[in-house]
Amino acid sequence: MTDQHTGDQTDQPDDQPDDQPDGIEQLDDAGVTPMTNEALFARSCEVIPGGVNSSIRAFKAVGGTPYLVAHAEGPFVWDVEGTRYIDLVQSYGAIILGHAHPAVTAAIAQAARSGTSYGAPTPGEMLLAEAIRDRVPSCERVRLMNSGTEATSTAVRLARGYTGRDRLVIFHGNFHGATDALLAAGGSGVATLGLPGTAGVPASAVANTMVVPYNVVPELDEQVAAVFVEPVAANMGVVPPAPGFLEGLRAECDRVGALLVFDEVITGFRLTRGGAQAKYDVRADLTTFGKVIGGGLPIGAVGGRREIMETLSPLGKVFHAGTLAGNPLATAAGRAALGELTGDVYMELLARARQLSANLRDACAAAGLPAQFPVVGTLVGMYFGDALGNAAPTNFEQAKTTDEQLYAAFFHAMLREGVALAPGAYEALFVGLAHTDDVLDQIGEAATRAAAAVMRDRT
Length: 459
Ligand SMILES: *Cc1c(COP(=O)(O)O)cnc(C)c1O
Fold this sequence. Notes:
Layout: H1 22-29, H2 37-45, E1 69-73, E2 76-79, E3 84-87, H3 102-113, H4 123-135, E4 141-145, H5 148-163, E5 167-171, E6 184-185, E7 192-193, E8 195-196, H6 203-206, E9 209-212, E10 224-229, H7 245-256, E11 259-263, H8 275-280, E12 286-289, E13 300-304, H9 306-309, H10 328-340, H11 343-367, E14 371-372, E15 375-376, E16 379-380, E17 383-384, H12 396-399, H13 404-416, E18 419-420, H14 437-457
Parallel strand pairs: 3-18, 5-9, 5-10, 10-11, 11-12
Antiparallel strand pairs: 1-2, 2-3, 4-13, 6-8, 7-9, 12-13, 14-17, 15-16
Helix pairs in contact: 3-10, 4-10, 11-14, 13-14
């Protein structure tokens, strides 16, 4: 599979930079030759397990060798071979303004000149926490940390510490990062109690975690500390909450005194200015954030009701700490990103999400490739194959009937056409401010050729 990702460069628009991008110069200095994806990935595999620092990047779900990114700008990434892709990965949603947005890079550069980490409080972290609270009123207090995973694991500890209960409820097909207590495998369709979702998670770590079907309000009891939910599920394709689902969770949590935790690591500041809580008008007790709030730098946050949040140390009994938490570069980048995200921008993103979905749908329909691209606000999902018909999935049982092989074929065909999708059938398409109408048209044209190629090869 040597030539799957190199693409045919002759028909690429010629707005590539004249000089080699910075990343490549640095690699040349480091003596990395030859500059091919194959060679560099093979070398990475000799030092980094699987060659990647986050599993999905290894292309295991779609086959082939990943491209290694040299640099990126706006809607584009360039790999180390100089091939340009229109990028719909956008760091799995961390990037919303486009790559290397001038406001964000300027804020990072300015912050870096003042030092990169202090181990003392800063005005910058205060300002980012205020910016989050301004947009999401349920977050009366906000604690910053370094990743979405750290946010969900802190929310687990906080919910348990605050309520004095151990039991957690999560939904099949939702994803909350690499947090042991939330890495429980769900059975199909029915509520199941904690089986470890991966090796290395002891049964005891998930013994108190119930996995229940998405979009059905479970009946809780007074052992439950918290219900964790992706208010729009964006890690099984994109599945909207059924009417009444989030309201039902709110009422059921209130009935038994459990906390409702919205995992807004993806939806926060992407779905609307106030995230899913604003769109659906349901208030969470705790909210976890990540991705967009760091402008592409490592960040996470937990926000929530003052009384709950002040159970965190140093005020309360639930421990939390982090050497780099509230990092000045990450908070500067996050403030710059949020500052650009005005109400008009979300209107624009809604229109672009619809346009992207329509372009992909039309392209696949023209080729007779069975696929659907559901839109939930600014998020676009994708499902392939005949199993679903025209009905968009409402839970993981249905989502996983997507044809993963067909997706892999479409993924590679798109890559050959110069469009990078996520290398996994259950990821969302992340449309951002850099995906102009012109770029969306180019994606549509690429998809028309890619879908035709997939159908040609499908015998
Ligand atoms: C990405 C994601 C996480 C984990 O965030 P990281 O920064 O990757 O640790 C948690 N929850 C949801 C819903 C996510 O999409």
